Amino acid sequence: MMRPRRIDHSLSRLSQVKREGREAEHRPLDFALIRRLFAYTRPYARTRNKLLVLVVVRALQLPLLAWAIGRVLSGPVKRLDVSGVLWGAAGYLALTLLTQSTLIFRQLYGLRLGEAVLHDLRRDMFRHLQRQSMKFFGEMRVGRLIARFTTDADAVRTGVQDVLFISMVQGGQMLVAAVLMCYYDWVLFLMLAGMAPVLYVLNQTFRRRLSIMHRAMQESFSRITTTLAESVGGIRVTQGFARERLNAGLFGELVADHAQFNLDLARASGVFIPMLEFNNQLFIAGVLMAGGWRVLHGA
Question: What angle do CA 183, 164, 41 make, to 5 degrees?
Answer without folding.
Answer: 125
